[in-house]
Specification:
This protein has 150 residues and is mainly beta. It is built from one helix and eleven strands, in the order H-E-E-E-E-E-E-E-E-E-E-E.
Length: 150
């Protein structure tokens, strides 16, 4: 990735021109809206950290993606699935109970339980992140996850 990119090129490169995929049983599809916003963490001269809207990325930048969701109708649970751009190495999620995939979304589990080849999967192997939103959760919410630009 070049040291500087335009905002549109950055969003395309990180796969952020799409909305996260929503998955739910075919017979019980809740009406849910999502919106993603991407920030980059910048370290200030006084060593404080600040989140700024992402308009460019540099290798090594910490990127924070915030997914806002709202349930428009019903009170059923649903799943939000977010593919990670290949240029981003997963770091972690603000939710402790997310599932990840290391094989393009074919299989899911906790990072410590997944394998790639003959080894345990690492955060750099993550290709997708998935959160299950239970019915008891309020009508709106926010999920955030972070990664490092490769």
């Amino acid at each position: 990735m070049s040291a500087r990119m335009t905002r549109q090129a950055v969003l395309w490169a990180f796969g952020l021109l799409q909305v996260p995929t929503l998955c739910a049983p075919a017979l019980a599809r809740p009406q849910v809206a999502t919106q993603s916003t991407v920030y980059v963490e910048r370290v200030q001269p006084d060593r404080t950290r600040r989140l700024e809207p992402a308009d460019r990325f540099i290798r090594g930048d910490r990127v924070i993606t915030v997914v806002n969701w709202s349930r428009r109708a019903g009170n059923r649970g649903f799943v939000i699935t977010n593919p990670l751009p290949a240029a981003l190495a997963y770091q972690g999620s603000a939710w402790d109970d997310q599932d990840v995939s290391v094989d393009g979304g074919r299989t899911w589990g906790r990072l410590g339980a997944l394998r790639v080849g003959g080894r345990s999967a690492t955060a750099e192997d993550v290709t997708h992140v998935r959160w299950r939103i239970p019915p008891r959760v309020q009508a709106r919410g926010q999920i955030a996850y972070s990664g490092i630009v490769r």
